[in-house]
Design goal:
Helix content: 25-40%
Shape: globular
CATH architecture: 3-Layer(aba) Sandwich
Strand order of the largest sheet: 6-7-8-3-9-10
Order of helices and strands: EEEHEEHEHHHEHEHEEH
CATH class: Alpha Beta
CATH topology: Rossmann fold
Strand content: 25-35%
Radius of gyration: 18 Å
Largest sheet: 6 strands, mixed
Structural class: alpha/beta
Number of strands: 10
Length: 238
């Protein structure tokens, strides 16, 4: 599904250059539940942004589902994001004047014109995240965990191939965070959607079936764990 081949990313400000990624290569299979971890400045968010087509590499190749996104222009990248990718942000990024239903349905309505299909799909995904009875509430009327559930529903409503989550548990308490991870793990298994996390949170790392660690823009670890190890680690973190 995802191939990152010898990718570098250099940010320039005047005569100053900062290398965020230095020759990173990574292969990610369909249906993965993968965490990218590392200290601040390690390059994990940059890597997530490149895979999410929110930024472009300085060199190297990024290929997703056979599409060479590193060679695509801005319009092509926007269309690719719309059809294939979902995003979950630590600050939720919900539109405050819209209800939960409207926040989730908006992205889907850009792809599907049939209002009945949009409504049915939106209500189905809100039910999946346990918020069907709160569809008419605005973000300010929801708890932080409920807002993040709306964000998860918004990311999944289009049926994306990949969901990219940047610190999705950062703004919720540990109990709520664990519930969100259980939810995303269940949705990952049910729909075979690939989840990629950028995280500092040890609980997210424990839930992941694969943990990639970055340091100074380079991959320093890549650990795949069997399901029983994940279950034990997750139970220990609780």
């Amino acid at each position: 599904m995802i191939s990152v081949d010898n990718v570098t990313k250099v940010y320039r400000s005047g005569s100053t250059e900062v290398a965020a990624l230095r020759g990173v290569s990574l292969q990610v299979e369909d249906g993965s539940f993968l965490a990218i971890a590392g200290p601040s400045g390690s390059g994990k968010t940059t890597l997530l942004n490149l895979i999410g087509c929110l930024d472009t590499a300085s060199s190297g190749e990024v290929i997703i589902g056979g599409v060479r996104v590193s060679d695509s222009n801005r319009k092509q990248l926007a269309l690719f994001r719309r059809h294939h990718l979902g995003f979950i942000f630590q600050s939720f990024n919900l539109i405050p004047v819209l209800t939960a239903y409207e926040n989730v349905s908006f992205a889907l309505s850009l792809l599907i014109r049939d209002r009945t299909r949009v409504r049915d799909r939106t209500m189905a995904i809100l039910a999946d995240v346990g918020l069907a009875d709160m569809a008419d509430r605005r973000p300010g009327e929801l708890s932080g965990g409920q807002q993040q559930r709306v964000a998860i529903a918004r990311a999944l409503v289009k049926g994306p191939d990949i969901v990219l989550a940047d610190e999705p548990t950062a703004n919720v308490d540990s109990e709520t965070g664990e519930g969100l991870l259980e939810l995303m793990r269940e949705l990952n298994r049910r729909h075979s959607t690939t989840f990629l996390f950028s995280t500092h949170d040890g609980m997210v790392m424990d839930y992941a079936d694969r943990l990639v660690t970055l340091q100074d823009g380079r991959i320093t670890g890549d650990e795949t764990r069997p399901a029983e190890s994940q279950s034990a680690a997750a139970a220990g973190s609780g």
